[in-house]
Structures are given as structure tokens and as C-alpha cells.
UniProtKB/TrEMBL annotation:
Keywords: Signal. Gene3D superfamilies: Periplasmic binding protein-like II. InterPro entries: PBP_domain, Phosphate_ABC_transporter. SUPFAM superfamilies: Periplasmic binding protein-like II. It comes from Chelatococcus composti. Residues 1-21 form the signal peptide. Residues 20-250 form the PBP domain. This is Phosphate transport system substrate-binding protein. It holds the Pfam family PBP_like_2.
Amino acid sequence: MRTLVGLICAAIVGFSLPTTAKAEELRIVGTGDGVDILRAVGELYTQRNPQTTIVVPPSVGSGGGILAVGSGQEILGRIARPLTDTEKAQGIVAVPFLKLPSAFYVHRSAGISSLTGAQLRAIFAGNIENWREVGGNDLRVRVVRREDRDSTLLVLRATMPGWDNLVITDKSKTAFTTQEGIESVRDVEGAIGWGPYSTSLPEQIVVLSVDGLFPTDEGYPSANTIELIYNEKTVTPEARDFLAFISSPEAREIVRRMGGVPTAK
């Protein structure tokens, strides 16, 4: 009898104890461009709003983010290319977040830190095959490129002189995500590639100046716009709150500090 009474009392006490609500995850899927910056902004938002945990998974590309949001699989996405009219007609809305300079970078073994625009074009066209030809070490150039629809490549073709019709050498490796491109250049001696700039890049590889201008210098010609997307049919109050937060002074300061230009308003 005493045992039964004890169990009943324990159950009553257990039911009366306050419970801690589990934080809801808000995933933002899509491009690998600007992912470090978005994660930093997300961490600050989560600190201020512990009921919502912002999660920024590895890249599935802008197209993957659009597909996930358009199908209702995810609430928020991240893209590095403009939405098409067809995508807009599905109810997908884009919110400007930041601009990122388009950077060229090399493995440290190349022995260089600056190239001219003409030298870059010659390297990616396959006309320069050894780093000593541009003042670097006696080492074979290994080109890492992105797929033709890569957002940074599209920006380079639109903004960098001579890139609009540049035919990239077929003696190259194709990387299919931003992270893969960075890792390929970081891990392969003599490698060169391109991608969105971030302040963490120089910790891993050498970011090049082009015609004397570093990607963060005024006058550097090429930058890509990163936007967050949602679907009018599925967007939640928590998602709208985070989209409002990215235009806050604190979020804009993180963007600047990490090498981007805030565009959220």
C-alpha cells in the first residue's frame, strides 16, 4: 500500500513540474555563397530568440533551395541568383540580404598574391600552365572551375572584362558547390579557383588582388547578391520575424565585419 501511495505522489509531483519547451528549428537551405555570414546572423538571432534555432545546412545550390521552398519542404531558402518569372509565379518571394565580392583564390604553393585581369583570363583559358610564367613558383597550374550556371561565374561573365565569352580550359576540375570549390583549391597544390569572398577565406587559401584591387577594395568590379526566399503559402510568423531581423543594425554590422555589403532594408 505504501508503495502504491508513493508512486501516486511521485506521479502528481512529476505532472506539476514545469516543462521546458523545445526550441523550434528554422532551416535556411540553398546556396553555399555567404553561408558563414548567414550562420553568424542566425546565431545572434537564436541568442535573442531562444525559442527559435536558426539552422543553415551545407549547400544544395540555389536551385535546391528554390525547389525545397517551392514544394513546401522548407520554410526559408537562400539563393545567389535572381528568381525567374516562373518561380515568382509559384509564390516565391526574394528578400535581399547582402552582396559578396567575387574572389579568385589559389593554393599557397603557387607563390603569388596578385594577378592582372589579363593573366587570370589566360590561366583559366589554359594558355598559362605554370605559375612561374606569372612570377610564382615552378609548379603546374591546376584550374578548378564551377558549372556553367554557377552564380559567381554568371556575375564574373557580366562584370569582369573579357569574361563574357571566355572559354575555360577543359583541363580543369569542376566543383559543384562553393565548399567543394574552396576545398579543392585548399587541398591541391597549384590550384586556382573562384567563389564568393568571406573573411574566413584567407585563413585557408590565398585570396588574390586583381589589377591591384583586393575584393573588399572600393572599385573592385565584381560582386554577387545573396537573397533569402520564402513561399507566400507556407511562410510562418517565426520566418517573417527572422527576415525582419536581417535588416537590423546588429545583423548589418555582422555582414560588414565578415566582408559583405548589407542590402537588407
